[in-house]
Design goal:
Layout: H1 5-38, H2 42-47, H3 59-71, E1 75-77, H4 82-92, H5 98-118, E2 122-128, E3 134-140, E4 144-150, H6 157-163, E5 168-176, E6 183-189, E7 198-202, E8 205-206, H7 210-221, E9 229-232, E10 235-236, H8 238-247, E11 252-255, E12 257-258, H9 266-271
Parallel strand pairs: 1-11, 4-5, 4-7, 7-9, 8-10, 9-11, 10-12
Antiparallel strand pairs: 2-3, 5-6
Length: about 270
Amino acid sequence: MPCHNQQLNSVNSGQELPMKQVRFANNNNNSNSSSSSSSSSSSSSSSSVPAVLSNSDPTDATKQTDSQDNLGPQLKLLPLNDQIRELQTIIRDKTTSRGDFVFCADRLIRLVVEEGLNQLPYSECTVTTPTGYKYEGVKFERGNCGVSIMRSGEAMEQGLRDCCRSIRIGKILIQSDEETQKAKVYYAKFPPDVYRRKVLLMYPILSTGNTVIEAVRVLIEHGVQPKHIILLSLFSTPHGAKSIIQEFPDITILTTEVHPVAPTHFGQRYFGTD
């Protein structure tokens, strides 16, 4: 994980972290605007340089801008690129085989988990290299854990363990009534000191947001502060993200896409129960 994140976390996590996701878009926008003012041929040259929000579908830039403007810095989107867009496309395609679906889902999960870890606090450290030199680096601060919302959230556990092999992971089982959409908690198991930890809450698809809201309430009952919860998801609807942030303004949501239609078949396809 990049060392520049240590500055963002150690100086002022409350103010600096929201800027992190905007940084990529601003750099590209600034470079494009400066190049256009420098010469009349900048339009052709800038089009050859892929921008974070550039895509054949003009609604992609609108979705990302509207999501950040309407929901604020609590919603963080992975910078869109062709790799992420391809993975999203394969996952949404009904003709995708289960093997390809799981493979691409795991790749997308890994990208989300990596960025989620990048939001956690780091501290400075000094190590000695094999040649005897001192290297100024960073390391994770203690006090992090994962919590998966069963069952689809369990698909993200391996991606987290691949990055943090000793991290502790709790579980919540919540079922929603098909008619009323009201969520009910059936099972919850967390580390005993979860109230002192930063929590990576894992749930790949945010549709209505009701399940996540209930899960966050359970964490709050166990002493976890919403500002210490980072929700990791792959896809979210505007309604789902808005509902969660309105209920818990201090929570952080990290996702790859905000779209009115979410691939709600994810859990069935991933575990082969469709």
